[in-house]
Design brief:
By secondary structure, the protein is α/β, with parallel strands linked by helices. The chain contains ten helices and nine strands. The two termini are about 35 Å apart. Keywords: Glycosidase, Hydrolase, Membrane, Transmembrane, Transmembrane helix.
């Protein structure tokens, strides 16, 4: 439980860095003020205990004497609740106000989406009524050496039940051991016939240097190929790929993220293109990443477990 809470905090920091540091600062100030005023309260209570009338003032006296402290505590609580609750509420409101745009999935490419616990509980029955021709769903499975997406088991099972081609990806934490990261993925992901090949999501540089990062990535990919008997696929952003990975992972299928809309990525031999993070899909309360496959149904089948 503590481990899951820890990784939720890490994920929140990565997705909402500004909101995270605001919350951290607020909590810090709250703790400092609480300790300061509590210390004053203890000192004052000790001195008052020497007097005969120790109960003078009662509850009303306490509120009168410490109205500033109480006001600060209430204010800080309101701020924290607002920072946490309002974004969640706004996401739901955005969903109800927005409608699907079928034009983003109307093309020569085979369309699909990718999800994680950030999408919350998905209504898979309603998703089946979407105007988008969704053929496949990529699902986040694991993160780092011991992180597990809390929605993976449910999403993995439901995707199969509703006849979507499903893929499981691992979010690579660049400062953690690559072998242990793969073991985490292998322990949680059991691929069967018709599933996508293993997928590695790499987006950030390592504090140990780029050479170390590439070594770790290639080690993860090698271990995945040995375990599942197929070459895995790599997901990464366009800039990160061009600056750090191009020429080092050419033997692996490539899923590239570039939010260029219908304008396709040039000079990159991509298999999947994540072209937006703001697609609206029935049954999903938040916006979602949308992807196109660059090939025919027969080509797509070549990226599945036989």
């Amino acid at each position: 439980m503590i481990r899951k809470i820890y990784y939720h905090i890490i994920d929140f920091k990565e997705i909402h860095p500004i909101r995270f540091w605001v919350l951290a600062f607020v909590v810090f100030v709250l703790c400092v003020l609480a300790i300061y005023f509590l210390n004053k309260l203890i000192i004052k209570s000790t001195s008052q205990s020497k007097k005969k009338d120790t109960n003078k003032g009662g509850v009303l006296g306490f509120f009168k004497n410490y109205k500033i402290l109480i006001g600060v505590l209430i204010g800080q609580t309101v701020i924290i609740l607002a920072l946490v609750i309002v974004p969640l509420t706004s996401k739901k409101n955005t969903y109800f106000k927005m409608e699907e745009d079928p034009s983003i999935s109307s093309s020569m490419y085979i369309f699909g989406i990718d999800v994680s616990h950030y999408q919350g509980t998905i209504n898979w029955v309603e998703m089946g009524t979407s105007h988008h021709p969704i053929e496949y769903v990529f699902i986040r499975a694991t993160m780092g050496v011991n992180g597990e997406d809390i929605r993976f088991e449910e999403n993995w099972k439901k995707a199969k039940q509703h006849n979507y081609i499903r893929g499981a990806y691992h979010y690579y934490r660049p400062n953690e051991n690559s072998t242990k990261q793969f073991e985490n993925y292998a322990d949680n992901v059991k691929l069967i016939k018709g599933d996508f090949i293993p997928i590695l999501d790499i987006e950030k540089e390592s504090r140990f240097g780029m050479k170390n990062l590439r070594t770790g990535v290639l080690n993860w990919l090698k271990l995945a190929e040995e375990e599942y008997g197929v070459k895995p696929m790599v997901y990464t952003g366009l800039t990160f790929y061009e600056d750090n990975l191009k020429g080092h992972i050419d033997d692996y299928p490539l899923w590239i993220a570039a939010y260029s809309g219908k304008h396709r990525v040039d000079n990159v031999d991509w298999d999947f293109h994540q072209f937006t993070e703001k697609a609206v899909v029935k049954g999903i309360r938040t916006t979602v990443d949308a992807n196109d496959f660059n090939g025919s149904p027969e080509d797509l089948n070549k990226l599945l477990i036989n």
